[in-house]
Amino acid sequence: MLDALPLPHPFDSRAGAAVLRRATPDDADAIIALLADDPISASRGDQASDADRPAYAAALVEILAAPSNDLLVVDLDGALVGTLQLTLIPGMARQGAKRLLVEAVRVSSTLRSSGIGSAAMRWVSDAAAPALGAALIQLTSDAARTDAHRFYERLGYVGSHVGFKYRVPR
Predict the structure, then answer these.
(1) By the 8 A CB rule, do 16 and 142 touch?
(2) Which end of the chain is more exposed for a tag (fewer CB within 10 A), N or C?
């Protein structure tokens, strides 16, 4: 886990007072449900099936054990309604700049446009990146996620690169 993160972080949203905090293994089911709540993730296999739960639970434990990774959740009145993963990447480019990678940003479909995602992403830029010494925050977003692209652009992110992925055959 990224020990330097200033957590927990309380914030207000249009849905009420929320807290951004580090995930625990007990949060696995709620995180799995958030992934499955997204149609693009669901089409890639994030179906929240009981058979897949051990793989998700193991991944969560691995993420939390890695010193350069963290998984965060948004708690709203005892319900987990958002999640995101952070990875700190040391680099040689840009005079040895560290990059903070943001992945798997999800907010419950019933609470999109409530300010929860904006508050979480502002915390990443205003608190997490400086605390970790990151010079750059980067993320990828599926080309089909046009609403997400507008969301990130409103927060000041720039679509500056073209991303590529290679699916490793199993």
Answers:
(1) no
(2) C
List % helix, strand, coil for the chain (3-state, nearest 5): 40, 30, 35
Q: What is the pLDDT of residues 60-87, one digit of tens each?
A: 999 999 999 999 999 999 999 999 999 9
Q: Are 122 and 144 within 8 A, CB to CB?
A: no
Contact between 141 and 152 (Cβ < 8 Å): yes
- Report how far residue 31's alpha carbon sits from residue 44's, in angstroms, rounded to the nearest whole number: 16
Beta-ladder partners of 88: 100
How far is CA 161 from its chain centroid?
A: 20
Query: Tokens at residue 31, please?
Result: 């995180």
Fill in the amino acid letter for 57.
Answer: A
pLDDT higher than threshold 90 for residue 46: no
CA angle at 60 for the pair 117 and 167, rounded to the nearest 5°: 85
At residue 42, does pLDDT exceed 90? no
Report pLDDT digits (tens) over 135-148. 999 999 999 999 99
The candidate with the shortest Cα–Cα distance to 111, out of 155, 71, 76, 73, is 76
Write the DSSP assignment of 124-149 as a string of letters. Answer: IIIIIHHHHTEEEEEE---TT-HHHH
From CA 46, how far away is CA 107, in angstroms rounded? 15
